[in-house]
Hints:
This protein is mainly alpha-helical. The chain is 67% helix and 0% strand.
Amino acid sequence: xxxxxxxxxxxxxxxxxxxxxWLVLQRQFPQSARRLRVALALALLRPGRxxxxxxxxxxxxxxxxxxxxxxxxxxxxx
Length: 78
């Protein structure tokens, strides 16, 4: 039983570290985070994948960017 508790603790710490790293990536490197999300979503949306994987890919996919190459897609354009 002690081993299961330790494994759960390591799992929770690992998830916290991954979540923290993702938030730092999004804040410091938004374009890289967007490219990573697109690559992951495209891999999950391939034909022949199970329905639940395609649904996950649609959730992961970032919203479409609008504007020119210098636009970050903030929707504050006049």
